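Hi L.,

As promised, DUF4399 domain-containing protein:
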Amino acid sequence: MHQRIFVAAALAALLASFGAMAESTPAPANAYLYIGWPNDGQVMPAGKAFRVWFGLRNMGVAPKDVKFPNTGHHHLLIDTDLTPAGQEIPSDRNHLHFGAGQTETMLELPPGKHTLQLLMGDDKHIPHNPPVYSKKITVTVK
């Protein structure tokens, strides 16, 4: 009896995890996302916020919860890898959301080497299909 309950619970958890995978929103094949500033390899002063400027071509920016073809909003990934396809982009200190449609931010990082990368998300924070992301750059804060 206990074994059946365990199997039923495991099956329910597995099915719930499939439900967490969302349908991806199509993206234009020629969409191009990039970090306009800072440049790869840039050295930034410690204890001071610096500007991060987002660039996007062949696609539009729309706030979260606004579903419009060929649009999305920016997510800045700090010291982390891209979110897997079909999964919601987390919101934490490594995944900054710009759901109001912002195209730049001020960022302060602790001393050391850091990676920055942009990833577009749809109205529900899911990466597009194909995913629209920038090259990963490295900045050094000292």
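Residues 1-21 have pLDDT under 50 and may be disordered.

Thanks again for sending the construct details.

K.
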